[in-house]
Amino acid sequence: MGSLHSKTLISHQYKSPDPGKLRMELIQDHSRPPLVYVKGIPLIKYFAEALEEMKDLQVWPDDVLISTYPKSGTTWVSEILDRIYHWGDQEKCQQAPIFHRVPFLEFKVPEFPSGMEVLKETPAPRLLKTHLPLSLLPQALLDRKIKIIYMARNAKDVAVSYFNFYKMAKVHPDPGTWEDFLETFMTEKVSYGSWYQHVKEWWELRKQYPLLYLFYEDMKKDPKREIQKITEFVGQPLPEDILDQIVQQTSFKKMKENPMTNYSTIPDEIMDHTISPFMRKGTTGDWKNTFTVAQNERFDADYEKKMAGSDLHFYTEL
Ligand code: A3P
Questions:
Q1: Is the pTM of this model over 0.85?
Q2: Which residues are catalytic, by number?
Q3: CATH code at 87?
Q4: Which residues are bridge partners to 65 per DSSP?
């Protein structure tokens, strides 16, 4: 793999025993660029740059949009949908990594095909993925009234999962300590901004759009029931045996072992699984292993204020 996104090659001459020799040196490291604010929303620098490209997005009537706040089970629900679309056909779903089967619209990292480029190669019926809040979502996605599947996960598990993801995925700034990161999360300065705003605004959107709002915790509790809900929503009812097969194929254990879902095909310079694997724990309530009692109390008090007036409720343990 080449120098990738993280390094800028700057050519310069220097005095050496071999005069005139031009050396290319890696003198500047651009990994972990600071977040860039777009309409007040902090974003990974490269993803912010991709928003321009997304203005040309052509939406097709049978597109289905998968929307989530990061670390809420996006990969899980994406794999479930791709399996539903292919009637659980193992071979078809093993042909490409999940980020090629389900284009990630705002994805952009130097030297990699952008989400919009992947989309161009994707045949209908397409599954599209985004983490964007509504203020940054291309209007075309809403105008066409395509089906949307939103998956939400409780804030505490998201925060812990996001902290570990920040550490391993080097397109993010350095998260600092857990204490630092929790503060960044609560003050809505992580990439994609406020979890609180995100889950609430998409919850409200279901009143006007064909939107199925799912919860990670429900999916953990009863995957078959939740997968069945998805099949009904997308109008692809499946026989019992195929449904059972999909439940099996999309279990955490299976997806952790599967190179087409576990992001192990992404080079270490971008995602270093030795720091923390993408498929990390896949549980509900893991936050208890990271939050201190004091952090939990402070988080709860702040949460209550931010979520006041909303009828949206989450389970933080099963
Ligand atoms: P943890 O870090 O808590 O383990 P996303 O795909 O939105 O980035 O979310 C990643 C989170 O979903 C990670 O959480 C990951 O382990 C979890 N996940 C992925 N596939 C899963 C599955 N099949 N079952 C349960 N959790 C899954």
A1: yes
A2: 131
A3: 3.40.50.300
A4: 128, 148
